[in-house]
Amino acid sequence: MQKGRSLLFKLLKNIFIFAVVVLICELNYCSFALADETAQNDAPRQYVTQSSPESREDVPVDKTWTIKFNQPVDLSSAQNSIKVVNKETNGQVSLNISLSNNGYYVNVSPKQSYALNSEYILTVDSNLKSRYNRQIKSNFSMDFRTTLKVVSVNDMNVAISQGDNYTLPTTVAATMSDGTVKQVGVVWSKSVNTQDPPGTYVYQGSVEGYDKPVNLSVTIKPSNKNVESVASTSMWIWELQSEVDSYGGIDALIQKLQNMGINNVCIKYNEGSSPSGGGTNFRDDFLKYVGDFRRNGFIVGTWGYNYFNYPESEADIIVDALNNSDYYVFDAEGDSNVAGVANKFDAAEQVCQIVRSKCPNAIIGYSSFPIASYHQNIPYSVFNKYCDFSAPQCYWKEMGWSVASCLDTMAREYKAYGLDKPIYPIIQTYNTDPADYDTYSGYNFKATGLWSLDSMGSTFEYYIGDRGSKFGS
């Protein structure tokens, strides 16, 4: 029986040996693993133990050390047994010492900031006691050096082109208290959007230990892509296969367009997020004949009637269209939440953002109503932000307006609403007079879309003859 008590005493003694583990971290920025054998180790932790002390560099001057024990510590004992000494002056630092986590953690911070760029030693002597009146096995010490102070960070300027792949820097050059220049981490208040309209934008960041904001001016220049490379008279096509059949084959259709002086086609590619609509697979028909157009020197664009009901899926098919064509035009119409893009400002932003992020250098336009004030539920401003040109649908006969009233009102309203992208109108190829085309031609737009090959009337065909370029400037 006596031998059993002796074994039990030794076992308890081994279990309750008082030990210290120092966890190096900023207060409030670490999670702790328990020191005893029943701890759950969720992730690797960074420890400094009595057997493997390490020196710490670039320590903030207001650093709070957290020291962890396997028994709750007596506060008065900790205040007497824990010291920090400046190794250069041998002066003892006045400390704030407190307990947390039911006494298992001792928090050590200076009452006044440590000196910059100085060496210190933190010690825990063997007189430290737990609340169970047990002492730690041996002394512990750890060296550390404080960081230099950031004295200044110069304002910075950078210029990029709209759509560039650019992110704000993660470090900035800072002048330190000893006169050296060092890269230090910076956290910005917001990220940059390279699709923002051209202009200068100021971003502010913060550097730890520096009480002034870091300023970075980003100048976004207009995109250097050549939008005018697709600016010519373009024939729009809705159902390509039907037109191929109507003209007796793709070669005959292409010959017809060439005879009209047209070398630019804009062909339907999608219906919302789908490549198909009304029994026609627009994407398949386009891919079937796009090579024929290109072999004959055509500029080949795509367009789609947009819904934005499934933004990610619709963005994906638009990206696919851009990968297979020279440009893409959003057909942004509709006067309800079901048909078209009306009232879908957030979805329009999401689609345009995805498309631009994946195709930053693509040429993209949008086509919508010419009188913007009549259709304020159309997200004109979103399209103007992300697109390179506008193609308002100036169908004056359908509107019951004169050519001049339609075009002049369109121009005034687009300007009033801040829609500042180049205007390449789309005009109707049916139910109008040669005199109207003469009036339109006098406006000398750089490019004109013709709606459409599917509905082209004999009056238009006779008027244009072999001079498709007559609609351009």
Automatic annotation (TrEMBL):
Secretion signal, residue range per the UniProt entry: none
InterPro entries found in the cross-reference section: Big_4 (IPR011081), Cu-Rt/internalin_Ig-like (IPR014755), GH (IPR017853), SbsA_Ig (IPR032812)
Alphabetic keyword roster: Signal
Sequence ranges assigned to domain SbsA Ig-like in this UniProt record: 47-146
Residue span(s) of domain Bacterial Ig-like: 154-210
Pfam hit, one: Big_5
UniProt protein name: Ig-like domain-containing protein
